[in-house]
Amino acid sequence: MGAGIAQAAALAGYGVILYDVSQDLLEKAIDHIYALIDKGVALGKVEEAAARAAREALRATTTLHDMAEAGLIVEAVPEKLALKQEIFSRLDALTARETILASNTSSLSITALAGATNHPERVIGLHFFNPAHIMRLVEIIRGEDTSDETVAAADAFVGRLGKQAVHCQDTPAFVVNRVARPFYGEAFRLLGEGAADVATIDRLMRSIGFRMGPFELIDLIGCDINYDVTRAVYEAYFQEPRYRPHPIQQRMVESGRLGRKSGRGFYSYDK
């Protein structure tokens, strides 16, 4: 997700600093972004001059303090509240007060994240969808203390990326992921009860208009991410049965079958 957001911003003409915890991860991300930009050029969707400018606009760092020069920072770490709060607290301390701190969280409270800072008015949710460089929808989530100026700046940023903003309340899972829970949950129940296999369930959902079936989509997103979001929504609604995780989700994560990124999920992925 971070790489996709960085790619979209670079192609929109922004200077982009990509931060991660290791040089190896950064090199993989940059190589992935370059490959996708080149693919866009080959398909005639990106002009060569824009591609060249986007490549030049990207730089990578393993030093969080380098983010101090940014006007907008989008956090895209795993869906762990404590981890995100720690990062927001550190960013709050090293950035200018005008810097907007945004989270790509798909389910956690923006107000809770802002509580880790001294300036909650500049904290907002910018939830992109996978793959972020292609999907047009972006949820803009306003926390209880988010200022009008922060919302307006975030809206302008999303518009410059050529994406469609949907303004959401700071409720568990916002709009899309709350709606999507039954899409995944019913699929797991059907699979768990032996009503149909993975491929059949996916094929049936595609046959009624979905671009991907639930298990194909989970493999793309990552089984671990899907499981974390499901648990977060379930807990946020105080164990509402409709949002209950399924044992199959837990088993997939514990066995390391995380989807495309691990080479195997509900389907197998070779080179």
Written account of the structure:
This protein has helices at residues 2-11, 23-42, 48-57, 81-94, 110-114, 148-160, 176-192, 198-207, 214-221, 223-236, 247-254; strands at residues 16-19, 58-61, 72-75, 100-103, 123-128, 137-142, 164-168. It has 11 helices and 7 strands. It has 271 residues and is of the alpha/beta class. The strands form 2 sheets. A 5-stranded mixed sheet has the order 3-4-5-6-7, with helices on both faces. It has a two-stranded parallel sheet with strand order 1-2. The longest helix is centred in the first third of the chain and has 20 residues, at 23-42. The chain has 3 domains: 1-62; 82-170, 3-Layer(aba) Sandwich (Rossmann fold); 176-262, N-(1-d-carboxylethyl)-l-norvaline Dehydrogenase, domain 2 (Orthogonal Bundle).
List keywords for this structure.
271 residues; two-stranded parallel sheet; N-(1-d-carboxylethyl)-l-norvaline Dehydrogenase, domain 2; globular; 11 helices; Rossmann fold; alpha/beta; 3 domains
